[in-house]
């Protein structure tokens, strides 16, 4: 393989069928190159910087878990816009999480989503044991936590000038959204979050136990209003304010008409129902908004350790994952970290399934968003060897008012919504899951940045496929 030995690079060979690269450094620079072998571009220190040709146009990414995954040219173009203008440094973004499919539409009266369908789906796929994890109403966050700035620099190429807003701040990792954007504009806030995470990891003894100097975590950052304030103001609060202004006067007029003997009973009843639905809608979104001051009031709920030095932990069973996370939360003295409540369910045991349903009803009845049902064996396959969904979300009846509107629970609206098509969303979730696993495997194997980034970029590209955003 040509890796520039004559220019002072390396003499490299590919060992087959092991698919291992073997190289030795050049004894000297035999011929001075016209351009330096290493560049300042991301990946340049590995001799192969990121290149537009790696992501431009129609792409096909080979994955270990799902074969070939295709990316359309128009989707790649949309991802390139986000990645080049808004995303964190690609060296600090080794993974993007997949989207998640909702449970099959329920036929139970009054419900669009119900966990009984999720348990039944996994049972049909041959998954005997699942874990139900509390769904936090926040924003998805991925945290790359390095033991110190030296590790971030040596392993990921991070520098004090990585990113446009870092200034002279020391960079020890990254914290970004599910589309790769930095979670906080101020790098000092990001570093404070990473510092608290690092302290918890240190106190829990995980650096030594996992034999690593860095961790990649999947998490939820709360409150939802921290990142979605614009959406709240322009969409949800506007609906709540309009209904609060209109319905009281309308109902008062109808009540006065009824008192005079006018036949407006049915209309009055309908408007009272609509007012109650609107009030429930307002209550639903307000549960996920609270005031924060700096990091005061901010909560981070990690739920999976994705990778460490030399290993992908994506296939570590979720009971083991949550045990590691619990130790981190236990050793956090700052109040930032929050545990994820969970319940294990045997899909073949009716009593266990009913306990899972009751747990969901109790949680959502108190205003919780819902839960995510996952196979305990994190990477599971059905009887035909195909990947099954890594997680199925079961959202609460009241929470879904935020998604489908205040009056979605009316029988005629529910019946119409039961015709929603889930096939594309499920396919998208599985393809993005396979790409995420591939990125983590490449990262763990120490493959160059362009190889890891190929799979990460593909996840972002698939996110621009047209799919119902309410699913």
UniProtKB/TrEMBL annotation:
Q: Which UniProt keywords apply?
A: Kinase, Transferase
Q: Which residues belong to any copy of the Polynucleotide kinase-phosphatase ligase domain?
A: 78-466
Keyword match Disulfide bond: no
> Which one of the record's GO molecular function terms can you name?
kinase activity
Protein name, per record? Polynucleotide kinase-phosphatase
């Amino acid at each position: 393989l040509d890796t520039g030995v004559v220019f002072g690079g390396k003499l490299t060979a590919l060992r087959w069928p092991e698919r291992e690269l073997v190289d030795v450094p050049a004894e000297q620079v035999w011929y001075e190159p016209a351009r330096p072998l290493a560049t300042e571009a991301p990946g340049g220190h590995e001799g192969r910087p990121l290149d537009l040709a790696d992501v431009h146009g129609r792409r096909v990414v080979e994955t270990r878990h799902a074969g070939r995954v295709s990316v359309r040219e128009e989707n790649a173009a949309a991802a390139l816009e986000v990645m080049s203008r808004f995303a964190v440094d690609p060296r600090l973004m080794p993974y993007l999480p997949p989207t998640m499919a909702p449970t099959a539409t329920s036929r139970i009266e009054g419900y669009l989503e119900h966990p009984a369908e999720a348990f039944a789906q996994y049972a049909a796929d041959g998954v005997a044991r699942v874990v139900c994890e509390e769904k936090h109403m926040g924003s998805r966050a991925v945290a790359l936590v390095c033991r110190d700035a030296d590790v971030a620099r040596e392993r990921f190429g991070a520098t004090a000038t990585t990113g446009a807003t870092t200034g002279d701040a020391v960079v020890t990792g990254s914290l970004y959204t599910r589309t790769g954007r930095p979670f906080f504009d101020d790098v000092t806030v990001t570093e404070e979050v990473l510092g608290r995470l690092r302290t918890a990891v240190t106190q829990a003894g995980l650096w030594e136990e996992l034999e690593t100097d860095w961790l990649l975590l999947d998490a939820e950052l709360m409150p939802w209003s921290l990142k979605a304030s614009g959406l709240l103001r322009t969409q949800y609060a506007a609906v709540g304010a309009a209904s609060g202004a209109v319905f009281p006067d309308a109902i008062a007029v109808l009540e006065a008409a009824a008192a005079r003997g006018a036949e407006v009973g049915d209309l009055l009843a309908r408007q009272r129902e609509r007012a109650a639905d609107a009030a429930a809608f307002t209550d639903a979104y307000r549960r996920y908004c609270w005031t924060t001051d700096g990091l005061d009031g901010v909560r981070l709920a990690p739920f999976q350790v994705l990778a460490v030095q030399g290993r992908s932990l994506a296939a570590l069973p979720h009971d083991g994952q949550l045990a590691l996370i619990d130790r981190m939360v236990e050793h956090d003295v700052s109040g930032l970290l929050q545990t994820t409540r969970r319940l294990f369910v045997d899909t073949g045991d009716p009593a266990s399934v009913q306990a899972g349903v009751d747990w969901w009803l109790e949680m959502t009845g108190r205003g919780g968003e819902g839960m995510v049902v996952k196979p305990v064996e994190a990477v599971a396959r059905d009887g035909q060897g195909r990947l099954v969904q890594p997680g199925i979300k079961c959202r609460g009846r009241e929470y879904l008012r935020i998604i489908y509107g205040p009056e979605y629970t009316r029988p005629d609206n529910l019946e119409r919504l039961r015709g929603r098509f889930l096939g594309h969303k499920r396919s998208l979730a599985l393809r993005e899951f396979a790409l995420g696993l591939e990125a983590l495997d490449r990262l763990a194997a120490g493959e160059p940045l362009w190889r890891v980034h190929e799979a990460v970029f593909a996840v972002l590209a698939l996110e621009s496929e047209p799919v119902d955003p309410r699913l």
